[in-house]
Specification:
Elements (H helix, E strand, L loop, with lengths): L4 E5 L3 H12 L4 E5 L5 H16 L5 E4 L10 E4 L11 H22 L4 E4 L4 H12 L6 E3 L2 H16 L6 E6 L7 E9 L2 E2 H7 L4 H12 L1 H9 L6 H15 L4 E10 L5 E12 L2 E5 L6 H24 L5
Parallel strand pairs: 1-2, 1-4, 2-3, 4-5, 5-6
Antiparallel strand pairs: 7-8, 8-9, 10-11, 11-12
Helix pairs in contact: 1-2, 1-9, 3-4, 3-10, 4-10, 5-7
Bound molecules: adenosine-5-diphosphoribose.
The site of adenosine-5-diphosphoribose has 25 residues, from helix 1 and helix 3.
């Protein structure tokens, strides 16, 4: 059987890490694409040269033209620019919206059957724009945010409690911003929901509140430390988990930015919700029941995403 093909649009910090992880996990052959000449080629060759050491078989190539992504099974998009000092949210939105239009055209022409995972920020608006620009089926275009936000939540809990990260499950829904919704009732340690852990005295409410706050600001914490860029290891690992679930039909239930058409009372928007990912892309949106507090948090988060989508429509009325 021919190997699967994974195309990475954007070969920066996250793109390079994605390529390396895809190789280590033998998910398929990898094409790195970027507008910067030499960067995707150099990173591809460098990773290929590591393959004899780690013992994985995969081809790596770099490209500056979209023809190279032809027939890709999975496409992961990180193309864009990060927010720089002095740049307004709308400036960033305008620049990356244009990038999504270009990438969308490339997908439409060369990889219309791919499962597409968008990582470019502001995530919920960019994945929405990418789906519109590409015209690909809505169940085949998703955004990566919830797996990362939940991983941060899980890591902070495991660290605080001194338990294995494997036994901590957590769910963070909503938009990928400070208004994200870490769901305490649906997060567990060894199967025990967090509110019960507080009752048992294993975790104080104050500590839990602090962890929730740290999770919400997790991206900013890394930016403040790195100074010249944003997180890339954990975002790449998160997108690879989603790609693997699709390629291997694992049917994992993961929080992803998914297209909602009435689910959770939201229409024509991408918002983070639990979805089942298998060989058909997003095979199911899991609608969990919220209590009043969760509902209010989710609504606030959706409103923030709506604001971004409205701004996109103003910048480029073709998206309206
Ligand atoms: N087409 C293809 N590639 C592009 C384009 C474009 N139109 N515009 C920019 N790029 C490339 C850049 O050349 C760069 O190599 O996208 C890459 C982005 O890489 P980095 O700047 O290293 O950013 P990275 O840390 O990988 O993050 C990418 O993910 O988490 C989000 O906020 C983050 O939006 C950012 C994205």
């Amino acid at each position: 059987m021919a190997r699967k093909k994974i195309a990475l649009i954007g070969s920066g910090q996250i793109g390079g890490t994605l390529a390396h992880l895809a190789g280590l996990k033998e998910l398929g052959d990898v094409v790195l694409f970027d507008i910067a000449e030499g960067v995707p080629q150099g990173k591809g060759l460098d990773i290929a040269e590591s393959s004899p050491v780690d013992g994985f078989d995969a081809k790596f190539s770099g490209a500056n033209s979209y023809e190279a992504i032809a027939g890709a099974d999975v496409v992961i998009v990180t193309a864009g620019v990060p927010r720089k000092p002095g740049m307004s949210r709308d400036d960033l939105l305008g620049i990356n919206l244009k990038v999504m239009e270009q990438v969308g055209q490339g997908l439409k022409q060369h990889a219309p059957n791919a499962f597409v995972i968008c990582i470019t920020n502001p995530l919920d608006a960019m994945v929405w724009a990418l789906q519109k620009a590409s015209g690909l089926p809505k169940n085949k275009v998703v955004g990566m945010a919830g797996v990362l936000d939940s991983a941060r939540f899980r890591y902070f809990l495991a660290e605080e409690l001194g338990v294995s990260v494997r036994d901590v499950h957590a769910m963070t829904l909503g938009g990928h911003g400070d208004d994200m919704v870490p769901l305490i009732r649906y997060s567990t340690v060894g199967g025990v929901p967090l509110p019960d852990l507080v009752k048992m005295g294993w975790l104080t409410q104050e500590k839990l509140d602090a962890i929730v706050e740290r999770t919400r600001k997790g991206g900013g914490e890394i930016v403040a430390l790195l100074k010249t860029g944003s997180a890339f290891y954990a975002p790449a690992a998160s997108a690879i988990a989603m790609a693997e679930s699709y390629l291997r039909d694992q049917k994992r239930v993961l929080p992803c930015a998914a297209y909602l058409n009435g689910e959770y009372g939201v229409k024509d928007m991408y918002v983070g919700v639990p979805v089942l990912i298998g060989e058909n892309g997003v095979e199911k949106v899991v609608e969990i029941a919220f209590d009043a507090g969760e509902k209010a948090m989710f609504a606030k988060s959706v409103a923030a995403v709506q604001g971004l989508v409205d701004a996109c429509k103003q910048i480029n009325p073709a998206f309206a």
